[in-house]
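Narrative of activities, Objective 1.

The group set out to show that a structural description can be obtained from nothing but a protein's sequence at a throughput compatible with the screening campaign. Below is one input-output pair from the validation batch, recorded exactly as produced.
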Amino acid sequence: MTSLSWQKRKKNIMKKTFIFIGLLSIACASLHAQNKTDIPVYLDDKQPLEVRVQDALKRMTLEEKTRPSYAQGKFSSPGCPRLGIPELWMSDGPHGVRAEINWNDWGYAGWTSDSCTAFPALTCLAASWNPDLAAKYGKAIGEEARYREKDVLLGPGVNIYRTPLNGRNFEYLGEDPYLASEMCVPYIQEVQKNGVAACVKHYALNNQELWRGHIDVQVSDRALYEIYLPAFKAAVQRGGVWSIMGAYNKVRGMHATHHKLLNNDILKGEWGFDGCVITDWGAAHDTYEAAMYGLDIEMGSYTNGLTSESEFGYDDYYLGKNYLKMVKEGKIPMEVVNDKAARVLRLIFRTAMNRQKPFGSMTNEAHEQAAYQVATEGIVLLKNEAAKKQPALLPVAPDQYKQILVVGDNATRNLMLGGGSSELKVKKFISPLDGLKKYFGNRIVYAQGYAAGRPMYGREEKIPQATVDSLRNDAVEKAAKADLVIFIGGLNKNHFQDCEGGDRLSYELPFGQNELIKGLLKVNKNLVAVIVSGNAVEMPWVKEVPTIVQSWYLGSVGGDALADVLTGKVNPSGKLPFSYPVKLKDCPAHFYGEMSYPGDSIKQEYKEDILVGYRWYDTKKIKPLFPFGYGLSYTTYKYSKPVLSAKQMNEGETLSVSVKVKNTGTVAGKETVQLYIGDEKCSLLRPQKELKGFQKVSLQPGEEKEITFTIKPKDLQFFDDRKHEWVAEPGKFKAYISSSSADTQNIVEFEYK
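Output recorded for this entry:
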């Protein structure tokens, strides 16, 4: 940190300290004025949290109890100034701390000190299949949020990947609830060690952006409990998350952000959540429902869509003056008011009033290294076939080619821009072209190849045909002269690509990329296709292109990470966190027609029920283009026959299954061993198998390691919506030891009694 920035930081800390002391003095004076001699327990962080909460609650007026439940700015909600209880500051940021937004509008504040580290999008983290990296990610982003003096970080996102058209899938952790659970828990825990609340989103069933503000999702209890809620439950019960963001959409006729079943019955009832439910910005719609059905803090509301936002104040929010009025009229019980106020106090004491939290840090080498590790371990090698009489194209050796052509708009585009609320202002940006030039210097030739336009909301920028033809012809001409072509395309966070507020319009690659790839192949078969996206894309050229890499939005140092994987400095070890359908109709959400996706603009029905992702492809015997859990390496692995600790498992007992994995290739690598469990006979339909464990193991050439999984009774359960309980029925089960959902290495059988 420079001397100047430290002085600025020191001045800011001192300013905040004086403000707090001033508020504390006011609070103490107020207590004396009331002839009270008791010590303000709520200010003593050595006291138990609940003692402090109840003490503060007793001292607050009705108006002071209701006021913290709605915003005072775009990203701030108030505390209780009279008692010295400070406000909360929030920030967008599942992948980095967003640049500072103006107090009362959506414009950027124009600070020069709010550049951040951009971490890879959460699909990349999920593709690493490495919970230790999730912890590093959470620690680093939590430190940056703390340094920026944020109390609530709006992430991670754990909605389930249901369709490859969802514009916001890049912010989520894939199609499987077990994988999403295992990856979100360490992220949350490490963020919150900084005294910053994670805010897990979007609760619940926000699985598309089209009509997100009102689409009414119809889903079975079974699909809700087995597929769409487990990651949220893990965040609450294992991650100990301090806040949850309510979703925009409706569920069974009621908006999710104030929903009796989701908030009162399940989240705060069955799971025992003691934190705050915070709206997505503008997701509240009714005062009575917001008060009674579990909403604690309302942010971003508009009370009249026909007027500008500046024409009404924050008191006009649903939990503003109308809430207070309904309480005074006896329409809202005081126990509801006290519970809501207690939850907000709890959040403030854990964050803004937590004197034990560290100072945090910003854009340092450790954070870049964490981002780099996630990026390199998340990149997935989908295909790497050898051409006739030639080795596979990857990895590219330093002196292998005289001229390498890099083609594609995504080779140079800053992909931290666009995408909606996850947009980031970064201190450093290393593009893929920059990363490759570090290796190959002037042997690299670049051609844009296609024009993707600017990030625009609500429409796509129309590119003149003359420009399209010129860029394509230039790339093809250069490809004919090159020894190797590296195409870097995909999606790009423009509207209707991977972007908040709108779904993709098509499964195919945009901007004429398919035609460009075909043109490149005609003149040069040595083609590596790097697809940058947070979603699966259609690949009509999959059989012709010898090498395909699934890259993601890799963050600040993504160019270095990608170059290191392509050149073999890092052996790829990523595995897909979602299935790649051959065509859109193969995807379960689309198989059942428009009422399943996207709905009729009012309602939609999740007709595939529990058969989401690989559960569908396995059970319906539909072959995906690339299966869930799939990813290649520059080395090879051999699995031994698994060994069960017993052939029978009784109720209340556990079973272990062990397998040895050996690196049979010539370079070090990391393999993710996956455990799936299948129920041979059940009173209800079950998938062929479900992910119940995974371990990522690092192996030197020739090295062998043993991996052991523990199978618990809960791993055999399904949710019986007839009884509204989790059930494990006696019978025969199979344990699948796999390298992907479609590549089972061995199966062992056991019986549950």
